[in-house]
């Protein structure tokens, strides 16, 4: 009887092992599907079978996507209105720090990648992916001019069988309500003559844990055929695809992702202001709360929101909600709190200088970090830009340092005309206050505090600094 039990146990163990092995194989196969399929296509398929993917906009979304399509075996024709961008990319030079020029050069050298300003070539690609800016107007309403102009241009050259996909973040309904009527000016009908889809970008510049290919991608189609075609195209570039039933569902998913972050960041920003009055360190509180292994996710305060999504997307949703007669008070309040953060930081700087018997007017302030987050060269919607303007309005003399941004460039709302100052002990000592706006890893914060008169820390960057803590004011 004992022997039988032993044998049964052994057999069960063997069966369990087989099941585990099968699961592991299945899991691995799922991860490598795109790469294996791409390799097969590039080695055995005819050149005519390899898709030509057109990407309109060679920026923070378009270029990383182009790289993944090239790596997956597709050919890419990029479109951009900036002649300098076109010229540099065709020479193998990357305009983005996190996309090495060596990658772009390889794409160009293998003749899988070319960029053009000539929009009359829009009819050539099998699929056109639109990755253009979707900012806000001064009244915080969607500014869709770049999407509209792109669609107007595409409609002139749109041909039968082409797929058009919007990648830019937008409000639910954009693809069908805005894009569709413009594209159908071509005389072609969506679903019959051409295909239409929406697939929101999920780029996170500087994030070393993920790259474009490994971030699951949501895809929604105008109809089933459009969805199927979009999924087939994206298989060349993305490891995991998440098809949803409509363009609206895909648009709403992107808005949800960013509104979720916006609301939670607003909460900790408000708690930061409250806890400061109570004499409590909000960063210590967040760290303590983070030890709970379930039901809590940490979000962190800062000098304001930056980047191309979180400061903008919630306002897209609130604008759309008004069309349905529903005010989104919770979301709008979160937007207001986050928008007000640069003003709070300036007020704290003013108070800190007052404590040192100095006025903000006439004081010299150095802003450390211009990028909207650490270790990247992206200044889109960066709170540092507004901080500089607000400090100037108060009469301060402002400089900045950023190891990734040697000088400012003219932007939609800002033209600061500044150059990054070189950091030296003598240089730091001449400033009345040093304001840490972006916590780049390259900065030696012990050294910064040691050589500064006063440090305003908006990122808890000086947490591990032990000497000179009386000089540090958190904001």
Automatic annotation (TrEMBL):
Record carries keyword Oxidoreductase: yes
Spans annotated as Disordered: 1-44
InterPro entries registered for this protein in UniProt: 6-PGluconate_DH-like_C_sf (IPR008927), NAD(P)-bd_dom_sf (IPR036291), UDP-Glc/GDP-Man (IPR017476), UDP-Glc/GDP-Man_DH_C (IPR014027), UDP-Glc/GDP-Man_DH_C_sf (IPR036220), UDP-Glc/GDP-Man_DH_dimer (IPR014026), UDP-Glc/GDP-Man_DH_N (IPR001732), UDP_ManNAc/GlcNAc_DH (IPR028359)
Pfam families linked to this entry: UDPG_MGDP_dh, UDPG_MGDP_dh_C, UDPG_MGDP_dh_N
Keyword terms: NAD, Oxidoreductase
SMART domains linked to this entry: UDPG_MGDP_dh_C
Family statement drawn from the similarity comment of this UniProt entry: Belongs to the UDP-glucose/GDP-mannose dehydrogenase family.
Gene Ontology molecular functions: NAD binding; oxidoreductase activity, acting on the CH-CH group of donors, NAD or NADP as acceptor; UDP-N-acetylglucosamine 6-dehydrogenase activity
GO annotation (BP), single: polysaccharide biosynthetic process
Location of the UDP-glucose/GDP-mannose dehydrogenase C-terminal domain: 366-464
Protein name: UDP-N-acetyl-D-glucosamine 6-dehydrogenase
PANTHER family referenced in this protein's UniProt entry, alphabetically: UDP-N-ACETYL-D-MANNOSAMINE DEHYDROGENASE
Superkingdom of the organism of origin: Bacteria
Enzyme class: oxidoreductase
EC number of the protein: 1.1.1.136
């Amino acid at each position: 009887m004992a022997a039988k039990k032993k044998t049964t146990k052994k057999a069960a163990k063997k069966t369990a092992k087989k099941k585990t092995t099968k699961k592991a194989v299945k899991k691995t196969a799922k991860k490598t599907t795109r790469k294996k399929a791409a390799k097969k296509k590039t080695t055995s398929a005819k050149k005519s079978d390899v898709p030509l993917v057109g990407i309109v906009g060679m920026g923070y979304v378009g270029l990383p996507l182009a790289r993944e399509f090239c790596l997956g075996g597709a050919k890419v024709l990029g479109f951009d209105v900036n002649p300098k961008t076109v010229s540099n990319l065709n020479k193998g030079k990357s305009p983005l720090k996190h996309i090495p020029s060596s990658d772009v050069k390889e794409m160009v050298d293998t003749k899988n990648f070319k960029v053009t300003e000539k929009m009359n070539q829009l009819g050539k690609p099998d699929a056109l992916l639109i990755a253009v800016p979707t900012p806000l107007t001064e009244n915080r309403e969607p500014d869709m001019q770049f999407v509209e102009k792109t669609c107007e241009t595409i409609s002139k050259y749109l041909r039968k069988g082409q797929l058009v996909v919007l990648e830019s973040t937008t409000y639910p309904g954009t693809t069908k309500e805005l894009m569709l009527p413009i594209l159908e000016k071509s005389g072609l009908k969506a679903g019959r003559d051409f295909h239409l889809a929406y697939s929101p970008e999920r780029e996170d510049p500087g994030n070393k844990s993920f790259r474009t290919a490994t971030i699951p991608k949501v895809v929604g189609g105008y109809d089933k055929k459009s969805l199927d075609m979009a999924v087939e195209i994206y298989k060349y570039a993305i490891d995991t695809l998440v098809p949803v039933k409509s363009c609206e569902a895909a648009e709403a998913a992107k808005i949800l992702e960013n509104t979720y972050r916006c609301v939670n960041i607003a909460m900790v920003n408000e708690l930061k202001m409250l806890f400061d009055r109570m004499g409590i360190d909000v960063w210590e509180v967040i760290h303590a709360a983070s030890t709970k292994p379930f039901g809590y996710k940490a979000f962190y305060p800062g000098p304001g929101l930056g980047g191309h999504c979180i400061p903008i997307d919630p306002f897209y949703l609130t604008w759309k909600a008004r069309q349905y007669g529903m005010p989104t008070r919770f979301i709008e309040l979160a937007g207001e709190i986050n928008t007000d953060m640069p003003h709070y930081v300036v007020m704290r700087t003013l108070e800190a200088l007052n404590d040192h018997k100095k006025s903000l007017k006439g004081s010299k302030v150095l802003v450390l970090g211009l990028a909207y987050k650490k270790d990247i060269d992206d200044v889109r919607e960066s709170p540092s830009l507004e901080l500089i303007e607000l400090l100037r309005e108060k009469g301060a003399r402002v400089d900045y340092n950023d190891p990734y941004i040697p000088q400012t460039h003219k932007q939609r709302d800002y033209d600061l005309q500044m150059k990054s100052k070189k950091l030296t002990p003598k240089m730091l000592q001449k400033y009345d206050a040093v304001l840490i706006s972006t916590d780049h890893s390259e900065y030696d914060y012990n050294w910064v505090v040691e050589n500064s008169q006063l440090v305003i820390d908006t990122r808890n960057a000086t947490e591990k600094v032990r000497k000179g803590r009386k000089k540090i004011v958190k904001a």
